[in-house]
Specification:
Helices cover about 40% and strands about 20% of the residues. It is an alpha+beta fold. It has 3 domains: about 15-130 and about 235-355, D-Maltodextrin-Binding Protein, domain 2 (3-Layer(aba) Sandwich); about 135-230, D-Maltodextrin-Binding Protein, domain 2 (3-Layer(aba) Sandwich), CATH 3.40.190; about 365-470, Beta-Lactamase, CATH 3.30.450.410. Helix 3 packs across helix 10 (about 250-270) and helix 10 (about 250-270) crosses helix 16.
């Protein structure tokens, strides 16, 4: 893969360019300062970022320490577009706790370990997808590409060192495209890449949540490759500087307790959480809810062996993009503080939570159209009728289409509809999916390639548009 470092070099990407800071240079005497780096638009870090900040959970937890006779604390939040500048600031000992995706976490551990004061530990997870659906490749709406193979010889925008870039490298390699020469990667921040795609300066964009969903929702792109095809877990997590947390262990415990507070809120009130995150990030609530609604991201703080193993498998990615020092993953991962936070805050059995692989926020309730309770959350979706106070559950794809059909007959607009991919389980926009009719059944797929795979295995199946499916579905 030919990497063209445009518009900035990889080294320059590890700077403060493009960040927004909410900071104060004045820290009162006797006050402990904690600087938190987060990414407001990387919405699977919300329980350690946007949602956590908006709800004030960290400040509340620190205030409790002060009220018990402890020190006073000052929290500074710094918002960035990607994980790279957070790592740069941690290397400079200017950020104490940060959150980012799995590939940036690897770079963080490798970069920071050179100095004792900057060395970090991975202390918790924010959210994960067991198959890798948090990263995707999109193309322009008028593109003729139908699979990742069609990108050979093309220009692709990605943030080098990001989770989206890591997925691109793996996808190309599996497709038999030389990851060193097969495509030309332009190293761009997500919003720059989005503009480049829209102006046809690049033929594809590979990014992390929520960029693919946002561009597709805005009709500025269509999905080409679902990261879930890799079948490899991808996640976002929290890193903390070891030197800082050794000096202020109570701050790390307060942060993890606050993250657990935010995780509980996200699980119990996903729709309300999506509104808070939308307001804090500037993203449409429909896009936030795509990923963070029931059946989307698994918001689970625990450091699961499957995620650690995936991180170990990704180490070779470091070697493919630059000269990075070897990283001992087992030493980098430190689950002791989170285990302590579970125990001290009455969260439950940490080992049982680690062992669980079930999405803690499934689609539930009763489908008002098909008139039955949700029996299989893996098939269930949601329909958000404009004017309704919240989305309504749909037991399966057919029930979702019937709900859309009923809304149309009543002259109501469907604000958004969400349905899991029939092959990979990825939660996606129903009206942006590739639909197949097989007999009386209608099946949604995230990509044309997935729909084609199904049709090849089922010769009687035919491709239909979403509007056709809505019109033709029968009780």
């Amino acid at each position: 893969m030919k990497v063209r470092l445009v518009p900035v070099l990889l080294a320059a990407a590890l700077t403060l360019a493009g960040c927004s800071l909410e900071s104060s240079n004045d820290t009162p005497a006797g006050t402990v300062k904690v600087v938190v780096g987060y990414q407001s638009k990387t919405i699977n870090t919300v329980t350690a970022g946007t949602l956590l900040k908006a709800q004030g959970y960290l400040e509340q937890r620190l205030r409790q320490i002060t009220e018990r006779g402890g020190a006073k604390y000052q929290v500074e939040w710094q918002d960035y577009d990607t994980g790279a500048p957070i790592t740069a600031q941690m290397v400079a000992e200017k950020i104490d706790i940060g959150s980012m995706g799995d590939y940036p976490l690897l770079i963080n551990g490798s970069r920071t370990q050179a100095k004792e004061r900057s060395a970090t530990a991975l202390v918790s997870v924010t959210g994960y997808n067991p198959r890798g659906a948090l990263n995707m490749v999109v193309v322009s709406p008028d593109s003729t590409a139908t699979s990742i193979n069609d990108l050979a010889g093309q220009k692709v925008s990605a943030s080098v060192g990001s989770a989206g870039h890591g997925t691109l490298v793996q996808a190309l390699t599996r497709a038999g495209i030389d990851a060193g020469k097969g495509v030309e990667v332009l190293n761009q921040q997500p919003q720059i890449g989005a503009t480049a795609l829209e102006s046809h300066q690049v033929q594809a964009l590979s990014q992390f949540v929520a960029w693919p969903g946002l561009l597709v929702f805005q009709n500025k792109a269509k999905l080409l490759y679902d990261g879930a095809e890799l079948g490899v877990p991808t996640f976002h997590g929290v890193v903390a500087r070891r030197a800082y947390t050794a000096e202020h262990p109570e701050v790390l415990q307060a942060f993890l307790a606050a993250q657990l507070d935010a995780t509980t809120f996200q699980r119990d009130k996903p729709f309300e959480a999506a509104k808070i995150v939308a307001d804090g990030s500037g993203l449409p609530q429909e896009v936030v809810y795509l990923y963070n609604g029931p059946g989307g991201t698994s918001f689970d703080t625990t450091l699961k062996p499957s995620l650690v193993d995936a991180l170990k498998g990704d180490v070779r990615y470091l070697k493919s993009i630059g000269d990075f020092a070897d990283l001992d993953i087992d030493r980098f991962v430190d689950g002791a503080p989170l285990r302590k936070a579970f125990a001290e805050n009455g969260i439950g059995d940490y080992d049982r939570a680690v062992a669980s692989t079930v999405n803690p926020s499934p689609v539930g309730g009763t489908d008002p159209i098909c008139g039955r309770a949700i029996a299989d959350s893996a098939q269930a979706g949601e329909v958000w009728i404009d004017g309704a106070d919240r989305p309504q559950p749909a037991a399966d794809a057919g029930c979702l289409l019937r709900a859309a059909q009923a809304a149309k007959a009543q002259g109501k607009l469907v604000r958004a509809a969400y349905i899991p991919d029939a092959e990979l389980g990825t939660r996606w926009f129903a009206d942006k999916a590739s639909w197949v009719r097989d007999g009386d059944a209608f099946l949604p797929f995230t990509t044309p390639a997935a729909a084609q795979r199904y049709r090849q295995a089922h010769p009687g199946a035919v491709q239909v548009s979403y509007d056709q499916a809505v019109s033709e579905v029968r009780p």
